[in-house]
Amino acid sequence: MRIGFDFDNTIVSYDPLFYNVAVEQSLVPVGLPKSKLAVRDYLRQSDHENVWTELQGYVYGARTNEATAYPGVIDFMRLARDSGISMVIVSHKTRHPFLGPEYDLHEAARSWVSIALTDGTDHLIEPKQVFFELTVEDKIARIAEIQCDYFIDDLPEILLMSGFPENTGRMLFDPEARYGTGGNVTRFGSWQEIRAFFELKWKAHS
Ligand SMILES: [Mg+2]
Question: What's the helix, strand, coil split of the chain in %, to 5?
């Protein structure tokens, strides 16, 4: 079995980080909810779209090392690896931010993977199984090419995009319950739920 993972907001959570950086730069009030969307909405409503765009470049480019994995995702990867499951990360990211300094966003993300997704000194996912594609179309093509049995993403529009392979199970990671269930997408609210789903499958096949 091969499982594919999206990266941003699926494996790695930026919520506390966006809040912390925005407060540090005095862009938002301290009392704002500690989430990326709350920071975005606050800046948009105060007509600071460019500030929001530049903040994203800074967080993804210069501060990604401070982002944290979602609870349970590393334990799940460890279990999957020990169960002989092959794992791949497929993400889409521009190389540089749209505004502000030219941070290398791919390098920042790879560096996070090599530090955070480890078990002692071993990579939980081999570096050559980590793909950062430049466009969403390239991401879908990569998912099709590597023939994942399942792909986990936080955005339904990715899982429902035309060209998404028929034989790949579409798993939506939706920890804030932003979406309903429907169609051929299965919704999960946590990595613990995803783990329970696979544990049942692995038991049935052992
Ligand atoms: Mg994502």
Answer: 45, 20, 35
**What CATH fold (topology level) applies to the domain 2-13+68-205?**
Rossmann fold (3.40.50)
Q: How many angstroms is it from 206 CA to the middle of ligand 1?
A: 32
pLDDT score at 182: 74
- Separation of CA 153 and ligand 1 centre (Å): 6
Instruction: Return the domain boundaries, the chain.
Output: 2-13+68-205, 15-66
206 contacts: CB under 8 Å, gap ≥ 6: none
Taking the whole predicted model, whether its pTM rises above 0.90 is answered as: yes
Q: Which of 78, 74, 86, 83 is nearest to 205 (CA)?
A: 83
CA of residue 178 to ligand 1 center, whole Å: 14
Which amino acid is it at 28?
Answer: V
Rounded to whole angstroms, how far apart are CA atoms 57 and 51?
10
Cβ 173 vs Cβ 198: under 8 Å = no
How many angstroms is it from 186 CA to the middle of ligand 1? Answer: 16
Residue 206 pLDDT greater than 80, yes or no:
no
